# Entry
Amino acid sequence: MGKKDVVSKIYLGAADRIADLLNNELFEGGSAVAASDVMELDSTAASTLKEEDNIVNVRVVAKDLVRKVRFGMQVMLFAIEEQSDIHYAMPLKVLNGDAALYDKQWSGIRREHKRKKDLSGAEYISGFGREDHLVPVLSVVLYFGEQEWDGPLCLKEMMDLSTLPEEVREKIADYPVHLIDVRRYPHAERFRTDLKLVFGFLQRASEPEELTEFIEENTKEFSSLTEDAYDMIASMSKTGELKELKKDVEQTEDYDMCKAIDMMVADGEKRGEERGMKLGEERGIKLGEERGMKLGEVRGIETDRNIFRLYRKGYNQQAIADALKISLERVRYFLDEDEAVL
# Structure
């Protein structure tokens, strides 16, 4: 598991954020789910693929995050798949993960019946009684990428069904993906936790003016971010400077993102000034050389004209040098060249 995955798992694992995400996405910002309704659960599931010659092959499927959520007397499993990049087999990945969670439940039910020895006939063969029930699984893909998602959003989109008869196509089982595109999510303002800050920051990360305005509107919240929220923003926005400045903006119990942004801006301005000064010096030297060469050519031509003018009047070389206040060698150099041309 990469560092970014660890950061997101820690951040998204908080019960209040899980409840906030569910309430916003399923209940339009309502309060159907409380943090106390969210319970931790192992996110891995294993299933036996084949048993042969006393060798057992086991497939382990892990969701990024799984929580048990209570709705009154009913419970469901809520799974989160976190994606920083587009995954073109996402429907199959979600399907495999969900199937593994259902298989894990079935294995547990079968094992309990085997211990109790309370099944017979078809129920015994099934390892599942008529009154048994699976806990439903709801999986959500949280996509943090900058590029707009263009991958498949259901299993059928991974298939070419164009040449099959409609009657066949409609009978083929499908499996949809519930995708939340974080940087383009239209209901971020309804969040009640710091998910609002994380979503809002990432949605404006490529627009400095909009980001500045958003931070100013939420100065109080950004000035006292929890460590996992700070890490989440720094990691998902791929802002290395925020990671480097983390120790400098640490407070007693939280982190001041506003101060970190100000320090980033100040550092950027300083580097910009230094680069500008260096560039200005380089351009100034080059411009000076060009102007010097041009001025030298102009003055050289004018001196040559004056030497020739005085020479035509009958001045000797020393008299020309004295009159023009130049060296005798300069006069001789021109007259020698001129005579050679003539």
About this structure: The longest helix spans residues 257-312. Residues 54-58 have pLDDT under 50 and may be disordered.
